[in-house]
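Per reviewer request, we include the raw input and output of the structure prediction for the construct analysed in the revised manuscript.
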Amino acid sequence: HREGNVRYLLDPRKVMFSSGNISERPLIPDLARSLPLPPGVEASADGPAGRRMEVVVDMFAGIGYFTIPLAKGSDRDILVIAVEKNPTSFGYLVRNIGENGVGERVIPVLGDCRSTLPNGIADRLIAGYLGGTRNYFRTAVELSRPEGSIIHFHDTVEVETGPEGLFNLLERMAAEDGRSLSLLGSRKVKSYAPRIDHVALDLLLGPAE
């Protein structure tokens, strides 16, 4: 399966691939360019052009839905840590990293994002899981750098709740962990079920108190 300059190897009988997300996958590198730099990257003087490498954690990498477009499309110095717990999907993730020539920019990790990585490593996180992603929000907070991070957060919501209602919930959760949360942008990705939408929020998590 090809989307733009990205080629995905997969067996649709064994792994999920949503055609409804076709507009969201290539959007990730565009968002990384247009949104503010993550706080730690912006402030650091350790790398090219006065900034250190940006570390991205893809919490639910699958076969590389978001990892591959970001690794191929980013014009910044980045390292994507792509976490996937399903062995079949992970196998395709590894193959797709090689197929798209992004091996120097991606580290694939087989395991659960809640237990496989050290805390405080991510400048940017992609939480592309659907159906209860909010249950992983505190994991995203734990993985975020103490000075703050950008989180691209996907979940399903009732139409009446909308992106704003989801943001309000996450803002309260962040506050309970001593972190501020700002909404940089939101969008409906697709209709998921009757009166249920798949939405995406671009969030700025503030520094730890």
